[in-house]
Each structure stands twice: as structure tokens, then as C-alpha cells.
Amino acid sequence: MTPFHVVIPARHASTRLPGKPLLPIAGKPMVVRVAEQAAQSGAQQIWVATDHHAIAAAVHEHGFKACLTHEHHTSGTDRLAEVVEQRGWSDDTIVVNVQGDEPLIPPQLISAVAQHLANHPECAIATACHAIHNEADFRNPNIVKAVLDKDGNALYFSRAPIPYPRDTFAAGQTLPEQLPVLRHIGIYAYRASFLRAYSQLIPAAIEQFEALEQLRALWHGYKIGVTVTDDAPPAGVDTEADLHVARATFEQLLSQGI
């Protein structure tokens, strides 16, 4: 297994769930539950990157490490870049960005994107996708789709239904089973060298219109490798309903001694 680090961005501000990283899930803050999942991935180091002292204190209390970062960062990628500089990691270090609101993220998915990046030296970034066969999901702009090239690198990400089966839909038929429709999973592995360069990259129009940060890297010519998984990972926590699901899942796992 290739050595890699995990960084978990965790902002205190949230419009839908204020203080989200500290919300309890089966007796521990959500961000700690995320760190516990990351600890099972084989990562050499795990750091929570936060702009809030209470989050850092909760992380330390449960035996994990935290970096205090600036409040002005507009994205988790910027926050990762600051951690890379604070820790002095070398340019070839692989850093996996695990979102702080995904307490059920599979550890094997974390290691898979890290290994994919290690196996593809031509790529600056690696991410993940899984197949979708539901036409409603295909047309849903809240679900990001990806199209890959022959080497498994990303050609494009979009909220639009891509690749679009023109003749099939023109004939009034449903989504063809053989159409390679991939749903993007929001986890990334980066080379530290890319994170150092990221803040200097001019935002791209396609990034701003699609509201997809990864399009900036593609627009500037960076390759994004994609590992395709068989199953969708559990959903993250964006709403109060998501929080109830996460809590119920953990309670069930704990009752089973898992």
C-alpha cells in the first residue's frame, strides 16, 4: 500500500446545520467519527483542518490531530493546501481529502483513491465514481456525472445528463442499460505539488457555471484519474434528516458490536 495522508476539512459555519462537525453521533462528534473511518484506511497521518478552536479541541480530546487554518478559505482544497504548507510535506506526498460530514465513508474507498493516484503518475488528482442506471438520477442536476477517456481519466464532470443518448431519447425510449453513466463521488486524492499550485490557478468559466471546483484542474490541463467502484458509498450529512439516518446507522452498528 502506497503511503498517504488524510486531511479532513471541517468548518464550523453551515447554513443548514450550524456547528455540523461537532454534532454528536452515537456519543462522539461527527468529525471524530469521520476520523475513525479514516484511521481504518491505512493512512500514515490523519489531520482535521479547521478554522474553529472548539472543533480542534474535540478532535484532540478523542486522540486525533488538528490543524488550525485561516477562516477565509473558500474551499476545502485551499484548506488542504494550507495544511500541506504547515506540515512541510514533500511535493510527492499523496493527500486524500475526506469531507468532514461523511461519518460513514468506507475506509476502503479512501485507500482506493490514494492507490489509484499512486498507480497513475501522469495524474495530479484521483477521485471515484460508480455506475448509475436510474434515469431520474441521470437527469438530476444535484447528481454530478463524469465521462472518462480510454485510460480511465476524467474528460468532464457535469450536472447535465452526460453522455446524452440522443437517438434513444428522441425515440421516446428510456435510459439504455449499456450507456456508461457514472456518478461522481466527492472524494479526492491530490499530490501535494498540485495543492501548492492550486491557489495560483485562475478560476475557469466552466467551473463557475457548473459550480464544480474540479473543472478548474481540467481546464488548466491537469489529469484526474478515476477509480470506478461497484457500489455507492453511504450519503454524507447535509440535512437534519441525513443526521438522523447517520445516528440510526451507528446505533445499529454499535448494538451489533461492530
Tags for this model:
10 helices; alpha/beta; 258 residues; Spore Coat Polysaccharide Biosynthesis Protein SpsA, Chain A; 9-stranded mixed β-sheet; 2 domains; 11 strands; two-stranded antiparallel sheet; 22% strand
CATH architecture classification of the largest domain: Alpha-Beta Complex
**Count of distinct strands:** 11
Q: Percentage of helical residues? A: 25-40%
**N-to-C CA distance:** 25 Å
Describe the sheet with the most strands. Answer: 9 strands, mixed
- Low-confidence parts: none
Elements, N to C (H/E): EEEHEHEHEHEHEEHEHHHEH
The first-level CATH class of the largest domain is given as Alpha Beta
Radius of gyration: 18 Å
CA-based shape = globular
- Count of the separate structural domains: 2
SS-based class: alpha/beta
Mean pLDDT figure: 92
Q: Report the sheet-strand fraction.
A: 15-25%
CATH superfamily label of the largest domain: Spore Coat Polysaccharide Biosynthesis Protein SpsA, Chain A
Question: What's the number of helices?
Answer: 10
Keywords: Cytoplasm, Lipopolysaccharide biosynthesis, Nucleotidyltransferase, Transferase
Organism: Ferriphaselus amnicola
Subcellular location: Cytoplasm; Membrane
EC number: 2.7.7.38
